[in-house]
Write a structure and sequence with these properties.
The protein is mostly helical. The protein has one domain (31-144): Winged helix-like DNA-binding domain superfamily/Winged helix DNA-binding domain (Arc Repressor Mutant, subunit A), CATH 1.10.10. The chain has helices spanning 7-25, 39-50, 56-63, 67-79, 101-124, 127-144; strands at residues 83-87, 95-99. A two-stranded antiparallel sheet has the order 1-2. α2 packs across α4. It is globular and about 65 Å long.
């Protein structure tokens, strides 16, 4: 009998390790509820912060939700001061999304958390270890990628 875990056992270990990592770092992470965000609003805000040129249609595609759902999230984020929406001067049909004051505060908080995560990983792992983890996580991500 092999000492290697089965594929199912390995997959379950991955799940547990993800939970363990989240628990180990949750005290450092900004919590969406601290910024009065739902989980989905957090996801929308993260996409806007990462790509200021993103359109509502592209947001819907990236997050796998309807344009109507995105519209509702954008309305809520705008009314809470997390984002602003204006019309493009080049094409009045296009909405330009920008972080508002509360969105900027949230992004700064996320940047501090990401810096903490990077600094901790660099301090405790070699560059080769980190490259191996990145490769494995990319493979895992691709296993969950939707076709389309």
């Amino acid at each position: 009998m092999s000492d290697q875990p089965s594929a199912r056992e390995s997959a379950m270990q991955i799940n547990q390790l993800i939970v363990d990592l989240w628990l180990a770092t949750e005290g450092q992470a900004p919590r969406p509820e601290d910024f009065e965000l739902t989980g989905q609003q957090h996801a929308v805000l993260e996409q806007i912060a990462a790509d200021p040129s993103i359109t509502p249609g592209l947001l819907a595609d990236r997050l796998g939700v309807s344009k109507g759902a995105i519209s509702q999230h954008l309305t809520a984020l705008e009314s809470s001061g997390h984002i602003t929406r204006t019309r493009s001067p080049q094409d009045g049909r296009v909405q330009v999304l920008q972080l508002g004051r509360r969105g900027e505060e949230y992004r700064e908080s996320m940047n501090r958390y990401e810096q903490y995560m990077a600094d901790t990983a660099i301090e405790k792992l070699s560059a080769a270890d980190l490259a191996e983890i990145v490769a494995a996580l990319r493979k895992l991500k691709s296993a969950f990628a939707t076709e389309g």
